[in-house]
Design goal:
Radius of gyration of chain B: 25 Å
Largest sheet of chain A: none
Structural class of chain A: mainly alpha
Structural class of chain B: alpha+beta
Number of strands of chain B: 20
Largest interface: A-B, 20 and 25 residues
CATH topology of the largest domain in chain B: Rossmann fold
Strand order of the largest sheet of chain B: 6-7-8-3-9-10
Shape of chain B: globular
Strand content of chain B: 25-35%
CATH superfamily of chain A: MetI-like
Oligomer: heterodimer
Order of helices and strands of chain A: HHHHHHHHHHH
CATH architecture of chain A: Orthogonal Bundle
Strand content of chain A: under 5%
Number of domains of chain A: 1
CATH architecture of the largest domain in chain B: 3-Layer(aba) Sandwich
Largest sheet of chain B: 6 strands, mixed
Chain lengths: 262, 384
């Protein structure tokens, strides 16, 4: 083990403090008994209780979860298919264009993605709400899902699929019995990533939603504009917990996949 | 059920010489191109039932492509492939009664050994009891009883190879393809496995086609072998014919060691051919029905083990040349001696001497002046 010098340790502490002190403060103040956010009035779980009786907030959370579930499933399905096309079909015509177009939303400013989707939805005259946000979220998290699955496929021994074909499996059966079981950790990780991206998103959801479909981040943001209440802190703490769990699960899945699939 | 001597049966097995024999597999003018590279060009080849056939050639000669076309993974650009007289060129891999053992073994890492072997049987939709029975039979066949529950990564390299073999044989294919089957095994295991594979093949009666770049492997196992170069078949025949009567310099040099001398035909009397060589003077050799004209420029090939070495000049008046020992390589069973013939700027000729006794003083040493000599049955003529 290499030991770190005092200078490096200081840099590490300052760096992590910069990243996580605000979050820690948020978590700590969610247990504040005082109504004033900046004044510590003793430990209390009062605000978590209050959260449970805040029906609009609960509705928004439930909507966000359903929305994240559907959009993550869509994005993972399409992203995995795109990854298969990129990894399997070698240098087909327009490969660079295809991969560029799939991955572009990764680097596209959210405002632009959101605005362009809004214009599209207005142009085709669909009623904005749950489904428009779902489609928007699937669009931008598809690229992330594609990258995760593609990385897994890059290390995939193609002769496994050929062996399955050779032993009498149709292409579809080969996919279900050999390809998918071997890439599923990456598919699951991609799904969790897409899920958290959707759960977190504020900008794109604001652009593409309509009346009656307010997601949790939108609800929180509008609540903050009326003044920060410890209730918001509590809601955020729960969200951080959920996202952290999902990210940890995703990285564990990817790691396990590497160990088994080799 | 080992036969006492499968070899004697092997010798009687020569369907390729029988004009009435129906081939199991027939390549007819098969050509395969990848972009501008022609991997296989105009190959016509017949394989017979129960035959153990080897495709031998350096990497990139097209042997793997030829095999992959048989499995259905590549489509020929021209020509057709017949199995039992039926054109299978357009049949997809999963519908061909042909199975393959992959070089990497390609065992499914997420399935147990038994499930790997059962994979092809499940695709056939066999009843469970039948599948279980066949898996057990296959495990016994490759001597892996009791290991059915293991995962591939819990097996040794040799065991994995057996699982791959069992999996490919489980469907009782008409033809088994083996892609470099021994490449990942160490030398001792390789030798044992070669003989086991031969026993297995004669026991099952399945037709085997093995692709290899290892000439020892091809010669040990095959009834017939084909030597490939640049996408074409250069020579097809039993191993001894390929070794003792190669059709050209490429085959002669690829299969075994050979010394090649340039010369000119000076006399043909019946089966006896006299060739004047620049390096070794007059060479006389016995060639069956030689189609050679006087004055033709040819090559004389001499295998190292067919040359004798002596300190004294041999009595014969030809098939001999003097030289100086340049290098001695002791290999245990044989000693490879390189003799410089024709002065310091001449040519090195390889001679192989069998070490028949243990402690006798080695009769030859570096820088000895020696004579090389050989029988009229030793040399062979190759086109120049």
């Amino acid at each position: 083990m290499k030991r770190l010098g005092p200078g490096l340790i200081l840099a590490l502490v300052v760096g992590f403090a910069f990243l996580y002190l605000p979050i820690l403060a948020l978590v700590a103040y969610s247990f504040n008994a005082s109504r004033l956010v900046t004044v510590w009035g003793g430990f209390s779980t009062h605000w978590y209780g209050a959260l449970l009786s805040n029906q609009p907030l609960l509705d928004a959370a439930w909507l966000s979860l359903r929305l994240a579930f559907v959009s993550a499933t869509l994005a993972t399905g399409l992203g995995a298919l795109a990854a298969l096309a990129l990894a399997r079909h070698g240098r087909f015509r327009g490969r660079l264009l295809f991969s560029g177009m799939v991955l572009a939303p990764l680097v596209m400013p959210e405002v632009i993605t959101g605005l362009s989707l809004l214009l599209l939805f207005v142009a085709v005259d669909v009623e904005r709400g749950f489904w428009t946000v779902t489609i928007a979220h699937a669009t931008f998290s598809l690229g992330f899902a594609c990258i995760v699955v593609q990385a897994r496929l890059a290390g995939f021994d193609r002769s496994l699929e050929e062996a399955a074909r050779d032993l009498g499996a149709t292409p579809l059966v080969t996919f279900w019995t050999v390809t998918l079981p071997l890439i599923w950790p990456a598919v699951a990780a991609a799904w969790m990533l897409a899920f958290t991206l959707s759960l977190d998103d504020l900008v794109i959801a604001s652009f593409t939603t309509g009346p009656g479909a307010t997601t949790l981040p939108m609800r929180l943001y509008s609540a903050i504009r009326l003044g920060v209440s410890p209730e918001i802190n509590a809601a955020c703490t729960l969200m951080i917990g959920a996202v952290a769990l999902a990210v940890i699960a995703a990285s564990l899945l990817l790691k396990r996949g590497q160990a088994v699939g080799g | 059920m080992r036969r006492s001597s499968p070899g004697s049966l092997r010798r009687a097995f020569q369907p390729w010489n029988d004009p009435n024999a129906k081939p199991l597999i027939e390549f007819r003018g098969v050509t395969k191109r990848f972009g501008s590279v022609t991997a296989v060009s105009e190959v016509s080849l017949s394989l017979y039932r129960r035959e153990f056939f080897a495709l031998l050639g350096p990497s990139g000669c097209g042997k793997t492509t030829l095999m992959r076309m048989l499995a259905g993974f590549e489509q020929p650009d021209a020509g057709e492939i017949l199995l039992d007289g039926v054109d299978i060129t357009a049949v997809p891999p999963h519908l061909r009664p042909v199975n393959m053992m992959f070089q990497s073994y390609a065992l499914f890492p997420h399935l147990s050994v038994a499930d790997n072997i059962a994979y092809g049987l499940k695709r056939e939709g066999l009843p469970r009891a039948e599948i279980a029975r066949r898996v057990a039979e296959m495990l016994a066949l490759v001597k892996l009883d009791g290991l059915g529950k293991r995962r591939p990564d819990q097996l040794s390299g040799g065991q994995r190879q057996r699982v791959a073999l069992a999996r490919a044989l489980a469907k009782r294919p008409k033809l088994l393809l083996l892609d470099e089957p021994m490449a990942a095994l160490d030398r001792k295991l390789r030798e044992a496995t070669q003989f086991e594979l031969m026993d297995l093949q004669s026991e099952l009666g399945t037709t085997f086609m093995v692709v290899t770049h290892d000439q020892d492997e091809a010669m040990t196992m095959a009834d017939r072998m084909a030597v490939m170069d640049h996408g074409g078949l250069v020579q097809i025949g039993p191993p001894d014919v390929i070794y003792e009567a190669p059709v050209n310099r490429y085959v002669a040099e690829f299969v075994g060691d050979i010394n090649v001398l340039e010369g000119k035909v000076v006399a043909v009397e019946g089966d006896l051919v006299r060739i004047e060589t620049a390096l070794a003077g007059m060479v006389e050799l016995d060639e069956e029905a030689p189609a050679l004209s006087i004055g033709a420029a040819v090559l004389v090939g001499l295998r190292p083990e067919k040359i004798d070495l002596s300190h004294d000049e041999p009595a014969q008046s030809f098939n001999k040349v003097a030289g100086e020992i340049w290098d001695i390589g002791y290999l245990g069973d044989v000693t490879m001696i390189q003799v410089m013939v024709g002065g310091d700027s001449g040519r090195l000729i390889k001679v192989a001497l069998t070490n028949r006794t243990r402690r006798a003083a080695r009769p030859f040493a570096w820088e000895d002046r020696v004579w090389l000599s050989w029988d009229i049955e030793a040399g062979l003529v190759l086109p120049r």
